[in-house]
Amino acid sequence: MRIGVFICWCGSNIKNMVDVEKVAEEVKSMPRVVYSQDVQYLCSEVGQADISKAIDEHNLDRVVIGACSPRMHETTFQKLLEGKGLNPYYVEIANIREQCSWVHSDKEKATEKALELVKKAVAKSYYSIPLSSDLLEVNKKALVVGGGIAGIQAALDIADAGYPVDLVEREPSIGGRMAQFDKTFPTLDCSACILTPKMVEAATHENINLYTYSEIEDVSGYVGNFKVKIKQKAKSVKADKCNGCGDCIEKCPKKVANEFDEGSSKRKAIYTLFPQAVPNKPVIDRDNCIYFEKGKCGVCQKICPTGAIDYEEQDEIIESEYGAIIAATGFDVKKPNDLAEYHYGNHPDVITSLDLERMLNASGPTEGKVVRPSTGNTPKKIVFIQCVGSRDRNKGNPYCSKVCCLYTAKHTLLLNEKFPGTESYVFNIDVRTAGKGYEEFYERARQKGANYLRGQVSKVEPLEDEDNRLLVRGYDSSLGEQVEIEADLVVLATSIEPKADSGDMAKLLGISSNEDGFFSEAHPKLKPVETQSQGIYLAGVCQGPKDIPETVSQASGASAKAITLFNKGQVESVPTTAVVNKDICSGCMQCKPVCPYEAISQEYVVEKVAGKQVKRPVASINRALCQGCGACAGLCRSGAMDLGGFTSRQLMAEVDIL
Ligand code: SF4
Ligand code: SF4
């Protein structure tokens, strides 16, 4: 065995805190290390050429790298070794950047630690064994979870590339949040005018199958071969018979709060989500239907001219297989009931920006008129409050919700245009306008008369005058004084949050979330649409706050990843899988339930005992399913389970060298 060691400076990232020359020099005394060198940038072309040259000149058959995280460049070095005719798993990486130079401030101690990390990697490489992947066939069908603009765009891109897509949406219609909006910034395009054609295109595309009023129940399998159970909730209306006349909706006697209008209007128990819904056929909301509550009514069935109402319809579980999954599950908007200082929920004229958006929408509860909910009159003075529940560690979410500055500017412009004479005041911490044309849009809002006050609002309180107006108390830092504004309407730009059940969805998909609950990408810069689970991609606000252009771009990025996977047709399995030593496996099967990927099953080996053939149970690993998490190896009491690339022998060698 001839080991070469390469210590990276990573520019000043490692070099400033670790004496890289010393580490490279000292490691030379280790057995089987025949070459050692420090290099300025190992991942660069020059750095890789240095490794390549050393392999040739010193006949190296193992390589140890002291550099950044293997998550960053492991495949770079593995490919280099493969190119030199060596097994790619003959490279070991000591992370002396994230785990050493970045987290320590004493150069001497950091150098000592770096040396220990490199020594451990050298000791591990004494026992490295060649590993190989299997090629797995890819099922060329995609699942998109969530039918908002992100899901629709992703589904259309994949379908246009010629691959079949199932688009699953829990509401009775696709469209998502964008369907609730009136206009979009910075162009003031009508939201429905852009969205509706896309919805129709998705619904009529020959490669797209829509599952509305449906949810994901179970996901198993692995990249290229996911098995998914979809629950299609009973709609109680036969789509093939219904002609969408809407007679049933008109006659239904039961009214409930309309969630699409944020509760500011009523809908019937049999309903379509909004006028341009796709599919445009009603569903019965069984939780609120008199027939399902009391066994009486049945008006819709009696009135339906086509006999489409079917109270007996059952939920259906659809099982299907996919090669790739795109999560586009969207977001919730915080209801600021817990922020008592704003009086939301206590005064009808304190509303959220989404409430205002619905009012501005011609198909909304007020048919496009902006009114004070308390009186129904047009408000004259409107106060907008930004960052409600955003950028606030103590009383809300620490992150910026990213779109509130621009949609508030949009609201002031629309008000100015539709209701000349209204006065708009915008309290803000600062205005963030990163995006093409956004700064100009904000400037336009100001030129058209929106009054921006830099400062926070301390309190909104009812004036208790005869008009039941509101007094907004705040601070204007540019004047350096407290200000009070009497308002007819107060609009709160509230925080964007992950879906309430996003944690459950993350568990189902086997992906991780950040501390705020948004799904985590595999790498924020290099893999922004991938997740740590191969074959599962992210699109839209489920990954973090973003505007519509960014959402659509990310959806196209996610679909491009799925299309690339389908075009390849095969995927390499993880080679660092579990391995059973059947000679010492006791067949206790304790490992089976701990495997999160259900990769372990029982099989039998036939042995001769005292001249007789006996069958003995042992564990068996499905290499296609195993993701190399190591849970089984950590648990096995017989020491029969090992992990390729991380065998017990290798781990013990790392410990022993210290
Ligand atoms: S009355 Fe019948 S056909 Fe008309 S929308 Fe209702 S279910 Fe469909
Ligand atoms: S059964 Fe009655 S309450 Fe239920 S959806 Fe039909 S009309 Fe409405």
TrEMBL record:
Keywords, comma-separated and alphabetical: 4Fe-4S, FAD, Flavoprotein, Iron, Iron-sulfur, Metal-binding, Oxidoreductase
Domain of life: Bacteria
The family this protein is said to belong to: Belongs to the HdrA family.
One term of GO molecular function: oxidoreductase activity
Cofactor: FAD
Name of the protein this chain belongs to: Disulfide reductase
One Pfam family from the record: NAD_binding_8
Domain 4Fe-4S ferredoxin-type: 233-263, 280-314, 576-605, 617-646
